[in-house]
Amino acid sequence: MSVDRRKIAAKAQYALWVIFFAQIVYDFFAELPYNYWLSWLPMLGAMGIGLVAARSARHRIATRSPAAVAVAPPVTGRWSAVNSPADKVPSHGTHSLAQSYAIDIVAEPADGPARPTPVWFWPVARANRAYPAFGAPLYAVARATVVHAEDGQRDHLSRSSLAGILYFWLVEGVGRTIGGSRRVVGNHIVLDLGDGTHAMYAHVQRGSLRVRPGDEVEPGRLLAQCGNSGNSTEPHVHFQLMDGPDPETAHGIPFTWQGVGVPAGGEKFTVDADASTRARPQDA
């Protein structure tokens, strides 16, 4: 599927979801002027577009088998992986937004406060500062050009309980779907690494950007800090490579982190700043 066709499909899918949810809101206040069952057609259309796009992505992976691109890790310190492409592809259960080979990582410091464990009921939510990933520095993984950088969206509370997760998926998740891809990935940075490869960092902390579009960055350049914006249940780093600057039309590309590889879900790993080739600090 060409970039133009993927763009049209993404916009059509978004429009159909908006129509579907708008009908639900309208029907809450006034009866729909047509058969109730017709109101489900936009949802079925949006799901159909998603299935076609997923099939196209699966076919591309099966026939082309893109090679992994080696880059530096985007963090330092001790972390563990969640939703890793080492376990399954697509790692997040969907090929949309170029997430086929995306990875989520959470901070697991050996010293200091531990990452809170999920609970059934209380507290329903936690402050982001309770999580050691919040505010962690994010670094450039290669020599690159910044093509997109934004940090104006809020960092919402972490969903630490079953009730919080249900609210996240059934209420806030619906709102973010209507809001489009920008509301899903939250504050984010996209780097052009050259040779058709782009790196995206999602869920960046509000107000933490140290770069702007057009900046040329070296490996290890401080870009921003880890946050909890967008479709995120707790502060974490979402990282992915893709073959274009726009996640709505790009395909995912496999990555491997130099000195780390691709950690599997639950696997802890440590990135030693002193042993890396990064030039730090560059936070001016």
Number of strands: 15
**CATH homologous superfamily classification of the largest domain:** Glucose Permease (Domain IIA)
In CATH terms, what is the fold-level topology of the largest domain? Glucose Permease (Domain IIA)
Determine and state the CATH class of the largest domain: Mainly Beta
Q: Treating each run of at least 4 consecutive H or I residues as one helix, how many helices?
A: 4
CA-based gyration radius: 19 Å
Overall geometry: globular
Helix amount = 25-40%
Low-confidence segments, ≥5 residues, pLDDT <50?
A: 275-284
Counting helices, strands and paired strands, the structural category is: alpha+beta
Q: Overall mean pLDDT score?
A: 86
Explain what you see.
With 284 residues, the chain is an alpha+beta fold. It folds into two domains: 61 residues; 210 residues, Glucose Permease (Domain IIA), CATH 2.70.70. The protein contains four helices and 15 strands. The strands form four sheets. Strands 2, 3, 6, 8, 9, 10, 12, 13 and 15 form a nine-stranded antiparallel sheet that branches. Strands 1-14 form a two-stranded parallel sheet. Strand 8 and strand 9 form a beta hairpin. The longest helix has 27 residues. The C terminus is likely disordered.
